[in-house]
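[job 0412] stage=complex_fold ligand=zinc ion status=START
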Amino acid sequence: MNKGVSKPFFRRSLKWIWTVAVILFYLFSYHSSALSTYSALDIDQTINHSSSSKIDAASYASKPVHFQTLSSAAQDQKQPTPKQPKTVYLTFDDGPSKNTPEVLNILKEEKVPATFFVLGEQSKQSPELISRIVNEGHAIGNHTYNHEYSQLYQNFVSFWNQIKQTEEVINDIVGIRPQLIRAPGGTYGHFDQTYFDLLEKGGYHVVDWNVDSGDSTRKNVPAKEIISNVEKAKLNDRMIVLMHDGAGHNETVKALPQIISFYRDHGYTFKTLTPEDEPLHFSVHVESKWSHRIAPGTAWIESHVDVNAELFHPGTVLALEVGRMQTELKSGEYRIENNKYMVPLRTLMEKLGAEVYWQGQERQVTISQEPYLLVVDLKKSLLQIVRPESKASSIQISISIRNDKVWVPLREVLQSTGHPIQEVTMDNDKRGIKTL
Ligand SMILES: [Zn+2]
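[job 0412] stage=complex_fold status=DONE, emitting structure tokens
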């Protein structure tokens, strides 16, 4: 009986337990799967979100790549995705010229910054315009010294020399070494891989364009045509517009206000190009007439290109403690060549309180620093030292001229004025020399 009563009861309760178990199982598994689906979705979207923002940032040059944490990315999902800002970079080549003041006036009125790829030859003639460009918040780029294709694309060394020559001119005027370079005529047809590689190695950034205003396709292209060329170009998030402010480009000046309005109406922000921007240049293709040029040798690259990138580490000043005098040479005011500090003689000696005289005919520099008299003879590469109450002596030094400046080895010059070097510090961010 007990058995009979207990059996159905047992069965019933088993069924009940089973039902509860099944319900519990379904409840639990549904819940956990919902949970896991949700988190998978969440992570997925998070990944998508951050990777898409990464791609956007990378393709959109001036915006730094921004890595978000997962939680902040998830939070951001609740917000509607903000519209990507669009940027236009107005660039002017071949100046400065008499058109440049007018271009600057328009930019000032419209409160728009731009980038000027200037020629060294022109800059030397109108240094006041280079100063004005910089003072009004625009960027300066290097467009070589004289724009002569036959010299520039003959071989890389000629191109490099013109870049350096122009750089010295600009540095003398405004104390800036432009890192941005635009090749005359653009890189396409002109640059081979060596040009690209060595310029990059030297610390430069080559920038072509993706909108040609067509203002230099022939003489006096009318403003109307320049505007229409700009307006018909396909709109991207990043527009680099080629224009010219060189002599003869009055029509570009006339077209400029309309070009500015066009980009403004399309929601673009105006910016200057910077070396930090994602590079934009044409693919490598060399016209056959340039294809036989010879690339520079290893020794030349070592002594010119390798040390050049040093110039663009703005933090690296060379602190000098010479006797009781303290001064410093900014990057660009010294360079390291074959493990030796080379300095522009006048810059150094004037900082140390000496008087410097240049005798052009004799090609000699005379430096008077009590109680010493130094004579640097460029013809003989000789440094003569006249000390009081002792015989004059002389040593052979390596002298080089760079854009009218006489560069000499720092060690020898300091030693000759009775200050042998005692201590040299050479860290990445700190360089210093201490003498007796
Ligand atoms: Zn040009």
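Residues 93-94, 143, 147, 184 surround zinc ion (CB under 6 Å).
[job 0412] exit 0
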